[in-house]
Every structure is written in C-alpha cells, then in structure tokens.
Write a structure and sequence with these properties.
rod-shaped, mainly alpha
C-alpha cells in the first residue's frame, strides 16, 4: 500500500515538472513566431510538433509511474506546472529573448547593409575596369585601322 501512495505523489510531482518542461518547449516554438510572420502551413507544423511532443512525454510519464493508467490529477498537475512556468520564467525568458533577437536583427541588418555597399563598390569597380578595357581595345582597333589606312594611302 505504501508503494501506491509513493507512486501517486511521484506522479503528481513529475506531472508538475513535465508541465513546466512542456511550457519551456512551447516557449521555443513561440520564439519562432517573434520576429516574422509565418504562413499557415508552418504554423500548423509547429503546433502539430508541439502536440506530438506533449503526447509522447505524457505517455512516457504515465507508462513509467502509473503502469499505463491515465490519471486525471496528473493532467491537472501538468497544467499547474505549465501555468507556473508561464507566469514566472516564461515571461522573463521571452522578454530577454525578444531583446536578444531584436538586437541580433539590428546587427545583422547593419552587417547586411555594409556587405551590400562593399559588394556594390566591388561590382562598380569591376564594371569600370571592364568598360575601360573594352574602350581601350576599341581605340586600339581604330588606331590600327587608321595606321593601316595611312599605309595603304601612303601618307604619313
């Protein structure tokens, strides 16, 4: 009889831990949605992946601690763990990650602008060099033609 109470209390404790873990996993999926809009297919895939992860984790929990029997209080404790994480650590993590992602996007945009300026400058140089080489080649061809014309006419 003592083992049954221990398993019930262990199931309740691990349900809270699993609920917090699932909220952390949900926060990872929320990070994908922070800076860019997603189309419906990608949103569906992310939601489906979260549901699949949640189902697998809860099944493993039930198989390990209650011999495969689903207990209603385990779902309630998992919800409590989810809400505890969501009200405490999730707010801190998401605000911190939003600031990090915003700063990273600003730095990446600045780097992208600098790289674009450098690439444009290099391409302009290449274009100028090619244009000058073509022009010089045309001038040399004209000079040779004029030289040949002068030789044929016999003038100096």
């Amino acid at each position: 009889m003592q083992d049954v109470y221990f398993l019930h209390s262990a199931l309740a404790f691990w349900s809270v831990v699993v609920g917090a873990f699932l909220c952390a996993v949900y926060d990872v999926f929320r990070l994908f949605r922070l800076r860019r809009k997603q189309n419906g297919v990608l949103l569906f895939v992310c939601d489906f992946a979260f549901c699949l992860i949640s189902a697998i984790v809860m099944l493993v929990l039930f198989f390990n601690l209650s011999y495969g029997r689903m207990r209603a209080y385990a779902f309630v404790f998992a919800l409590i763990g989810f809400l505890i994480w969501r009200m405490t650590a999730s707010r801190l993590v998401m605000s911190l990650m939003y600031k990090i992602i915003t700063a990273t996007c600003k730095v990446l945009n600045l780097i992208k602008m600098r790289v674009c300026v450098i690439v444009k400058h290099i391409l302009r140089r290449i274009y100028t060099i090619r244009y000058c080489n073509k022009t010089v080649a045309k001038i040399e061809v004209k000079r040779k033609e004029q030289k040949n014309d002068r030789k044929e006419t016999g003038s100096c």
